[in-house]
Design a protein that fits this description.
By secondary structure, this protein is mainly beta. The chain is built from two helices and nine strands, in the order ββββαββββαβ. It has a domain of about 100 residues: Nucleoside Triphosphate Pyrophosphohydrolase (Alpha-Beta Complex). The radius of gyration is 15 Å and the shape is globular. The model has no long low-confidence stretch (mean pLDDT about 90).
Length: about 160
C-alpha cells in the first residue's frame, strides 16, 4: 500500500489532492463525506510517486466504481484553511473526466479506506444550482469551462506563519 502525500506537524498539515469533474445532462457528480453539511467533488490524495492524472482515475474508481477517463486538467488550487487538525495547506488538481454510459443514480456507501471508514453520499447536482458546495470557485467556473488551465489561491482568513 502506497503512502498518501500528506504532512502533519504541530502547526497543521499539508496535503496533495485530486478531484474529478464528471458532468452529465447539465449535472455534476458530487459527494458529501460523513454528513459534513456540504458537497464537493469526488477525489482523494495523491500517493507518493503517482501522477495526479493516475490518482484521479484510481480515486474516482475507488469511490464510485466508475472507470473514468481524464479529458483535461482544468484547475490548480492552493487552498489555505482551518481544518480539524489546525491550519491546512492543500495543493489541488481538478480534472474534467468522461466515461461511457453514465447510468449511476444518487446513492450512499461506506468507503473502507486506508485512513478509516467514511460515509459517502453521492448526488448529482445541477451545475447552475450548487448549494452547500465547496470550493466556492467551482460554482462559477463549471458553467463556463474553457481551454485554459486556471490557478486559484484560496485563503479562508488564515494568517500565514
Amino acid at each position: 500500500m502506497n503512502k498518501d502525500i500528506r504532512i502533519k506537524c504541530e502547526e497543521g498539515s499539508f496535503k496533495y489532492r485530486v478531484s474529478g469533474i464528471l458532468i452529465s445532462n447539465n449535472k455534476v457528480l458530487t459527494v458529501q463525506m460523513n454528513d459534513n453539511g456540504f458537497y464537493c467533488l469526488p477525489g482523494g490524495h495523491v500517493e507518493l510517486m503517482e501522477k495526479s492524472s493516475d490518482a484521479i482515475i484510481r480515486e474516482f474508481y475507488e469511490e464510485t466504481g466508475i472507470q473514468a477517463k481524464v479529458e483535461k486538467l482544468l484547475y490548480v488550487t492552493e487552498n489555505f484553511f482551518e481544518g480539524n487538525l489546525g491550519k491546512c495547506h492543500e495543493l489541488g488538481m481538478y480534472y474534467l473526466l468522461s466515461c461511457k454510459n453514465i447510468n449511476i443514480k444518487d446513492y450512499t456507501t461506506i468507503e473502507h479506506d486506508k485512513n478509516g471508514d467514511m460515509k459517502l453520499e453521492f448526488k448529482w447536482l445541477d451545475i447552475n444550482n450548487l448549494n452547500n458546495f465547496k470550493p466556492e470557485f467551482i460554482k462559477s467556473e463549471i458553467v463556463n469551462i474553457n481551454e485554459e488551465i486556471k490557478h486559484f489561491i484560496i485563503q479562508n482568513n488564515i494568517e500565514k506563519s
